[in-house]
Every structure is written in C-alpha cells, then in structure tokens.
TrEMBL record:
Lineage, top ranks: Bacteria, Pseudomonadati, Pseudomonadota, Alphaproteobacteria, Sphingomonadales
Biased composition (Basic and acidic residues): 12-36
Matching InterPro entries: dGTPase, dGTPase-like, dNTPase_2, Glyco_hydro_18_chit_AS, HD/PDEase_dom, HD_domain, PHydrolase_assoc_dom
Keyword Nucleus: no
PANTHER family, sorted: DEOXYGUANOSINETRIPHOSPHATE TRIPHOSPHOHYDROLASE-LIKE PROTEIN, DEOXYNUCLEOSIDE TRIPHOSPHATE TRIPHOSPHOHYDROLASE
Protein name as it appears in the record: Deoxyguanosinetriphosphate triphosphohydrolase-like protein
Originating species: Sphingomonas astaxanthinifaciens DSM 22298
Keywords: Hydrolase
Length: 386
C-alpha cells in the first residue's frame, strides 16, 4: 500500500534552485530531482568516495566497503522503500548518494581529528561539509559555484536525521543563504534516506567485520535479533557453508528491517492524518521509522558493533595513526598556509585560513592524505592489516 499521493515530493512543485537556470543547452527529458541525482553522481566529491574509509582503511582490501560502495548500497535500499511507499524515488536516491560526500579521509577518526584541529574556528562536521560541498566547493558549472541543487535536496541533506537546533558553522552558513527551515522535519524522502543508511551500515558492517575476523560471531549471536535470523537460516540450509550463511544473514536482516519500516511508516502516517509534504514537516515527529520493538533491537545491534567492531582493539592502532595523520596535516597547513595549493588561498584571516585548511583536508582521499603526510611531515605507520 502506498501513502497518500500528496505526501510525495513533486519536482514540478520544487521551491527551485538558488541560481536560476534558463533552459539552455541539452537538458534531455530529466526532471528537477533526476538532474540533482545526476549532478551528484558526476561530482568530483562523489568519485573521491571510492578511496575513503567506511570501517576499514580504503587501501586495505578489494572486498571491504568504502564510502562509495556504501552510498550505492544505501541508494538501492532507499529507492526500493520509496517505490513501495509511493514517494519520489529520484529525490530519495539523490539524498542517499550524497549523504556521505562530506566525510574526510579515514572516516569518523579523521572527522574527530579535523574537528579538534579547527575547533577554535567553528569546528568540522561531515554533514555540514556535505552542504558546503554541494553549494560552494564543487566547481562544475560556469555560472555558479556548487551544484545548484534544488531546495528539497538541500533540505534533505541538512535534516535527514531530524530538525537541527544548533547548526554547525558550515550548515549555518548555507542555511543563511537558502533558508532550510532547520527547526522542522524534512520530507519523507529524506527520512527514508536516513533509515536506509542505518539499515545498510548495520548489516554490511557485520559482513565486513566477520570477513575481516575482527567481529566475533559469538557476540552477535547474543543478540536475539541476530540469533533468530541465524537459526532460521540454519534450519532452512543445515549444511550451508559459513560464508554463505553470513551473506544470507545480512540479506534476511535487511529484509526484516525494510519490512518493519514500511509497516511502521504506514501506521504513523495514517495515525497522524498527514496528506501533504507540509503535514510531514509540521508533524512534530518523524513519520518514517522502525517499530518500537525493532528500535530496541537495532540499538542493541549498534551497541554490539561499537563494542566489538568500531572500538575493537585490532582497529585501534589504525584509528590512532589515522587521527595523527589528519592532525599533523592540519597543524602543518595552519602553521604555514603557503603549503596549500594556490587555489586554496582565499583570504588571510585566521578563521578563513582554518576553513581553507579544513576544506582541503576534507577533500582528501585516504591514499592522498598518506602521501601528503609523507611529503610534509614524515612516514605514516598504518598497520599492514586494517
């Protein structure tokens, strides 16, 4: 069952772009949200995600997920959910593909180090930096900086995790120009994109963690949610090899979470009486979500992943060295901004310099950050594994 048709975002009713674009050049049959999605896919920032850490450092192995493959997997899940609910698939897909554009090298470890390095000048947040990338730092078009995305796409990137009461420096700057109504909830397309992200990384990080031998299966099987699926697979295929059983586990858990999300979202929309996007934004709560039972199980799964994977002793040397690399690069550039490429010299006050440094480092891939550190500071001693 789809939702009321007025709830879906309509490209013909978009609030438009900051920079008016006259109908010039070969635009083809694409609507506004399809063009946004395609601009994201063709951006430099999107291509760089192929060498940015998801859980394991990007150069570590061919089969581990990186930010790019993760984003594609999120988009697949989000697009499917949007289709079943009758939401706008193209807007949902655009938000899923773009949600991690602002990540610096080395994932959250790199983000923490970069945030600390420029804390006196507003700090760093990957979500705010995503907005900064798509509104300022991409330089694809001759008439404006950024990708000039539609208001609904920018709103979704800003608020996909809910209303923002205290926007970080970068997001506040974009909001001042665009007016993203940060105190309200975003469209259902944006809410679905955020949940698709949770579904993807909860399950795919299990896959990568078990493959790497870092995440202990016994710890996962202490969770009733995982144990139910694991045991059901064993009953269906008693002799299934471990590798295939893990893949079946990931698939089945994704299916369960998607099914729960669909049912709960329908229930919430019906209970709220929402008929339009305006109703969704004014609902005072997220209308897309998991049931209370699955929320509890998903939180337990996240706690298990943090304890046994993200904060695993085997990964700590990598995290420490990654943070050292980013911190040293930031210190070197802040101490002597002349080390930055010429294109990154924009203004000379301390705050502007700090922002230039953050923008430049955040755009680095893992291998490029390692290379620049070796050139400017000294050797990088990442463990051979992880």
């Amino acid at each position: 069952m789809t939702l009321p048709p007025g709830i879906a975002a309509r490209p013909s009713e978009s609030r438009g772009r900051v920079h008016a674009e006259p109908d010039q050049g070969p635009r083809g049959p694409r609507d506004a949200f399809q063009r946004d999605r395609d601009r994201i896919v063709h951006s430099v920032a999107f291509r760089r995600l192929r060498h940015k850490t998801q859980v394991f450092v990007a150069p570590d192995g061919d089969h581990y997920r990186v930010r790019l493959t993760h984003s594609v997997e999120v988009a697949q899940i989000g697009r499917t959910i949007a289709r079943v609910l009758g939401l706008n698939e193209d807007l949902t897909e655009a938000l899923c593909l773009a949600h991690d554009l602002g990540h610096p090298p080395f994932g959250h470890a790199g983000e923490d180090a970069l945030d600390a390095a420029i804390a006196p000048h507003g700090g760093f947040d990957h979500n705010g930096h995503t907005l900064r990338l798509v509104t300022r730092l991409e330089t694809t078009y001759p008439d404006f900086d950024g990708l000039n995305l539609n208001w609904e796409t920018l709103e979704g990137l800003a608020k996909h995790n809910g209303p923002v009461t205290a926007p970080q420096w970068a997001l506040a700057g974009v909001d001042a120009e665009v007016g993203l109504e940060l105190q309200t909830f975003a469209s259902l397309e944006a809410q679905v994109a955020a949940l698709a992200d949770d579904i993807a990384y909860d399950n795919h990080d299990i896959d990568d963690g078990l493959r790497a031998g870092v995440l202990p299966l016994d710890a996962l099987l202490e969770l009733p949610f995982v144990a139910r699926h694991w045991d059901a697979i064993g009953r269906r295929w008693p002799d299934l090899p471990m590798e295939r059983r893990v893949k079946a586990l990931v698939r089945d858990q994704i299916g369960t979470m998607v099914g729960d999300l669909l049912a709960e979202t329908r229930r919430r929309v019906a209970g709220n009486g929402a008929e339009t996007i305006a109703d969704v934004r004014a609902a005072g709560m997220a209308l897309a979500g998991f049931s209370a039972e699955l929320v509890a199980e998903e939180r337990a799964l996240k706690r298990c992943l943090y304890a046994n994977l993200y904060n695993a002793p085997a990964l700590q040397p990598v995290r420490v060295e990654a943070q050292r690399v980013v911190a040293n690069l930031a210190a070197a550039y802040l101490d002597d901004p002349r080390l930055l490429p010429d294109a990154w010299h924009r203004g000379d006050c301390p705050e502007t310099t700090a922002r230039n440094v953050a923008d430049y480092i955040a755009g680095m891939t893992d291998p490029f950050a390692i290379k620049r550190h070796e050139e400017l500071v000294g050797p990088v001693e990442l463990p051979e594994k992880f």
